[in-house]
């Protein structure tokens, strides 16, 4: 493994007493003798060791490439032999519904726009611990732009209706949402027909 990856991993994986965020990390060695680490899943056909560790916010300023956009608020990134699934903090995009349900209006639009913004591009992350499904919570920055805020401004995501990190500038998100709603951008154009992703998930359990 390259020295840079070792240094990044050392800052990424800390003891539980240092950070409240918890993340299960898998480690395995490929055919070339390179050790890999991932919080996404066990590699197919590989024998991996699961390393329960805490994840710190020290991945800030590290560059990663967005390899996949799952929907309007979840992506996968790779960099320096590391692979992570990111849940974009502070935002909640319309649900795509997966393969079993139709999904919400503007869900596919949100996914497409996010792909146009960052798919295959280098990004910087500002991490806020981990959330559900073992995903790292983070703000994503590309070319100096906060992509999380961009999705809110375009009316393709709402401010997450739950507990937000105390260190997050939630005022900027609320102001961006108020402006998008007032201008009827994106999903806000539905008016009274609009339904929060949070409510939609309750009505449409997986």
From TrEMBL:
<protein>
    <submittedName>
        <fullName>Thermonuclease family protein</fullName>
    </submittedName>
</protein>
<keyword id="KW-0378">Hydrolase</keyword>
<feature type="region of interest" description="Disordered">
    <location>
        <begin position="168"/>
        <end position="194"/>
    </location>
</feature>
<dbReference type="Pfam" id="PF13511">
    <property type="entry name" value="DUF4124"/>
</dbReference>
<dbReference type="GO" id="GO:0003676">
    <property type="term" value="F:nucleic acid binding"/>
</dbReference>
<feature type="signal peptide">
    <location>
        <begin position="1"/>
        <end position="23"/>
    </location>
</feature>
<dbReference type="InterPro" id="IPR035437">
    <property type="entry name" value="SNase_OB-fold_sf"/>
</dbReference>
<keyword id="KW-0255">Endonuclease</keyword>
<dbReference type="GO" id="GO:0004519">
    <property type="term" value="F:endonuclease activity"/>
</dbReference>
<keyword id="KW-0732">Signal</keyword>
<dbReference type="InterPro" id="IPR002071">
    <property type="entry name" value="Thermonucl_AS"/>
</dbReference>
<feature type="domain" description="TNase-like">
    <location>
        <begin position="60"/>
        <end position="190"/>
    </location>
</feature>
<keyword id="KW-0540">Nuclease</keyword>
<dbReference type="GO" id="GO:0016787">
    <property type="term" value="F:hydrolase activity"/>
</dbReference>
<dbReference type="InterPro" id="IPR016071">
    <property type="entry name" value="Staphylococal_nuclease_OB-fold"/>
</dbReference>
<dbReference type="InterPro" id="IPR025392">
    <property type="entry name" value="DUF4124"/>
</dbReference>
<dbReference type="Pfam" id="PF00565">
    <property type="entry name" value="SNase"/>
</dbReference>
């Amino acid at each position: 493994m390259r020295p840079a990856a070792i240094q990044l991993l050392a800052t990424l994986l800390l003891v539980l007493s240092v950070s409240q965020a918890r993340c299960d990390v898998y480690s395995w060695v490929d055919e070339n003798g390179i050790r890999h680490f991932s919080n996404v899943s066990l590699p197919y056909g590989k024998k991996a060791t699961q390393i329960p560790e805490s994840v710190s916010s020290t991945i800030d300023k590290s560059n990663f490439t967005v390899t996949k956009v799952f929907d309007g608020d979840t992506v996968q990134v790779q960099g320096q032999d590391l692979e992570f699934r990111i849940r974009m903090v502070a935002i909640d995009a319309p649900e795509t519904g997966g393969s079993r349900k139709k999904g919400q209006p503007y869900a596919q639009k949100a996914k497409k726009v996010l792909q146009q913004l960052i798919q295959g591009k280098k990004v910087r992350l500002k991490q806020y611990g981990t959330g559900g499904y073992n995903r790292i919570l983070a703000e994503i920055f590309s070319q100096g732009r906060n992509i999380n805020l961009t999705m809110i401004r375009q009316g393709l995501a709402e401010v997450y209706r739950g507990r937000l990190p105390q260190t997050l500038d939630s005022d900027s998100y609320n102001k961006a949402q108020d402006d998008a709603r007032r201008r009827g951008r994106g999903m806000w154009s539905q008016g009274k027909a609009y339904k929060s992703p949070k409510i939609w998930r309750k009505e449409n359990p997986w």
